[in-house]
Amino acid sequence: VNSLSLDFLTEFCISLEKLENDRACRGVIFTSAIPKIFSSGLDITEMCGKSMEHYAEFWRAVQEMWLRLYGSNMVTVAAVNGSSPAGGCLVALSCDYRIMVENPKFSIGLNEAQLGIVAPFWFKDTFVNVVGHRIAECSLQLGSLHPTPEAHRFGLVDELVPEDKLQEKAVAVMAQWLALPDHARQLTKSMMRKAVLDRLVAHREEDIQNFISFISKESIQKSLRMYMEMLKKKKS
Fold first, then answer.
1. Residue 133's pLDDT is what?
2. Catalytic residue ranges
């Protein structure tokens, strides 16, 4: 389900860096090869029953993925072909433009609160920048997953398209964005996003320590274990 494991995040960052360094590559479309799911978000197994060192390494990789994607010089388009909770939603939010399949069965949102987890400040900042303060506040407190029509109404996704038109639309949007001179677009993007990026860079170690102390609490570990058991039951 494209869950963001440590290996997945590491590979994602390496691939993104290679593309950033390739002068011939000016834009990237992110989508999933798995039907009905864009990304299920952070891999819960990385946050359950592991060492403090592992939690630190994992969280640093999550930060790195966001810093690279949100701050990318390339045009980034999310072609969201299925549900996208939590970290999956963050990946989409970090792109310049989001197109989602027009299917009310699919949903997207930062639903961390449902697992007893708090979305970090930089998740929140990214969300607020897209949907505005009030919608973000309600959505984060309730851990809401928004069905596609609602997500579109809130501006969480920019466009809804039929499933068979998703790739075609993503390519058309990319062409539209790439028609502009790169330097002007890049400087504008940096101006719009720099304060949010700088805030994490300045507080990166503190954010890692906050994550470790929070995730290693027995009450949080217990709720994560319960959630994993529920997932196992669903699968079986």
1. 98
2. 42, 87, 111-112
